[in-house]
Amino acid sequence: MRTNTTATAVAARFLAASLLGVGALGAFTAPASAATLGERIAATALGEDGNGACAHGGYDGGPGQSSSCSGGQRTHAWCADFAGWVWAQNGVTGLGTLDDLAASFYEYGLKYGTVSSTPHVGDAVVYNYGGGTADDHVALVTGINGNTVTITGGNQGGFPGKVSTHTTTSWSVGSAPFGKPISGYISPVTGTGVGTPTPPATPTASPVVHLYALGSDKRIYGDNGNYSTNTWSGFNQVSNTQGFKQSTAITVGDSVHLFALGADDRVYENVGTYSSNTWSGFKLVDNTQGFKQIAVTATGNTVRLYALGSDDRVYSNDGDYAAEDWSGFKLVDNTPGYKEIAVTATGNTVRLYAIGSDDRVYGNNGNYATGGWSGFNQVADTQGFEKLTAVATGSTVHLYAIGTDKRVYGNNGNYATGGWSGFNQVADAQGFKRLAATPENNTVHLYAIGSDDRVYGNNGNYATGGWSGFNQVANTQGFSEITAAAGS
């Protein structure tokens, strides 16, 4: 398969009907003094991106910290030295509390009363406090945009480490976006007083949806829907590469990771950054072949890719974009006989679903914080399902399936309280062949390909109840597969 990074536009533009209007992204505003300190810290940290332990002759930020470099060589694990150095460059006081250990930043926060569960630009973020000095870590918050938090830290990426920057939507205390649980956010103190952090706006879900469909030419087309303006961009070719059979997508930070199953039954990835309007081009994830279907979700910055093999078993491959590495495809468990898979996540737990040979739906829960899978268990006794998609709002999973009658059914599983609602018809409309869904706060945007090979959307508001009904997204036809990702 060949790669072409230039998107070829098609002329048609269409508007969607009966979209649910929602508010635009909230902006972060703070008093000038608080914003200035945070922005200065962020600018200093980001300016060090890519540096090693011996930049500037070594990092250290106070009387209790020793240099990260001696004789041109790294002296020790230096994440705390880097964070302390950045704070020191910007006039942060009380640095005598800090030492070479990440835990000293949490002690700083306890001393000055600045420990918080809410990130602020310029904060130190401490991981695994109390978990042992070999397993803790500290970095700095260098950006907040909607529900995305950007974090810059030293001694990252394997020995001898470097300064690197990553983004995550999994920023809450207790979550583990980069493999270690977040213990808290520590705001810096200036002058002689105790710092008073100014919180950013509550992270808000994006009103933008990136919808991708596979055309009859086996190329992938994208259509961007903005639910705050009730408009769609129209379907445009993502890449000139062809020969694809199915696709799946997930948004991580400010990028969409679009995966496609090639004619050679291997998996390819194309990373789209909408802020710069660029795509990486389709590249092999790895050389493993023999897959029939793929599905993807993410926990933090780690992409969890699942594939249904020709042996009707499910395989997983974890893409750690902080370490720039994939785990390789491995069996989830040895159970065979599956025909269709779907996946989503609640926190650090992956919710994997599959349609069995009996046309019933089974679920398997993978907890990436503790390790291990629950094993596949029947979700409901209802049978006769052909296609499947899943999406989560909070701790609730919304599972949608196409029945043999070509209608769409929904089943809501609340993992906080336990139990499922049971499969109920979403709408009386029939003739559907494929499904995709993405969440926005308490609303699910559900998409389906109809018998006319066009794409239809139905918006379900789980706060107020009710669905908008299936309405044509665009008049473009000839589509056979569909996937959706939240706005980047």
Tally of strands: 35
Which strands sit side by side, in order, in the main sheet? 3-8-4-5-6-7
Radius of gyration: 24 Å
- Helix fraction by DSSP (H/I, runs of at least 4): under 10%
- The low-pLDDT segments are 1-35, 192-203
User: Based on helices, strands and strand pairing, what is the structural class?
Assistant: mainly beta
What characterizes the major β-sheet? 6 strands, antiparallel
Describe the model:
By secondary structure, this protein is mainly β. It has helices at 32-46, 79-89, 103-112, and strands spanning 69-70, 73-74, 115-116, 124-127, 137-145, 148-156, 162-168, 182-186, 208-215, 220-226, 231-232, 236-237, 244-252, 255-262, 267-273, 278-279, 283-284, 291-299, 302-309, 314-320, 325-326, 330-331, 338-346, 349-356, 360-367, 377-383, 385-393, 396-403, 408-414, 424-425, 434-440, 443-449, 455-461, 471-472, 479-486. The protein has a 6-stranded antiparallel beta sheet with strand order 3-8-4-5-6-7. Strands 9, 10, 11, 12 and 35 form a 5-stranded antiparallel beta sheet that branches. Strands 13, 14, 15, 16 and 17 form a 5-stranded antiparallel beta sheet that branches. A hairpin with a 2-residue loop joins β23 (338-346) and β24 (349-356). The longest helix has 15 residues, at 32-46. The two termini are 27 Å apart. The relative contact order is 0.12.
